[in-house]
Amino acid sequence: MKRSAYTGILVLINSLLLLTLLGVVPFAWILRDGLGPNSVTSNGLDALARAFTTLYAGPALLCLCGLHFLVRHILHKQAGRGSKVGSSVLILASGLLFGGITLALIGLAFD
User: Fold this and answer.
1) Residue 22, H or E segment
2) 3-state secondary structure labels for all residues of 43-91
3) d(Cα 77, Cα 1) in Å, to the nearest integer?
């Protein structure tokens, strides 16, 4: 694939990562705490863990971060600055990350 295609994919991944981090995660935190007079305040690592599982924001965020670093690795490898990791490892990593994002989106759609 051409370098410009990978750059376009990296821009798309970065925009999805930013949307998830600034839009979905805070919204999931607010929804998990509740709205209205029955809302509760929460804090600590337990609250963070429960907020990341609300709307599958945490798994989606982790998968997008993995895809970001995978595409950056491919770009650096094409430029000759990357490590000598075999292509089978890259294919396996991209398949696992794509599967993780797919499972998170399916869980969100059918939850």
Assistant:
1) none
2) CHHHHHHHHHHHHHHHHHHHHHHHHHHHHHHHHHHHCCCCCCCCHHHHH
3) 12
CA distance 84 to 77: 8
Coil, strand or helix at 42 = coil
* Structural domain that includes position 17: 3-109
Question: Total structural domains in the chain?
Answer: 1
2-37 pLDDT, tens digit per residue, is: 778 888 888 999 999 999 889 988 888 888 877 777
According to the model, what pLDDT value does residue 84 have? 65
What CA–CA distance (Å, rounded) separates 93 from 72?
Answer: 13
Q: Specify the pTM.
A: 0.70
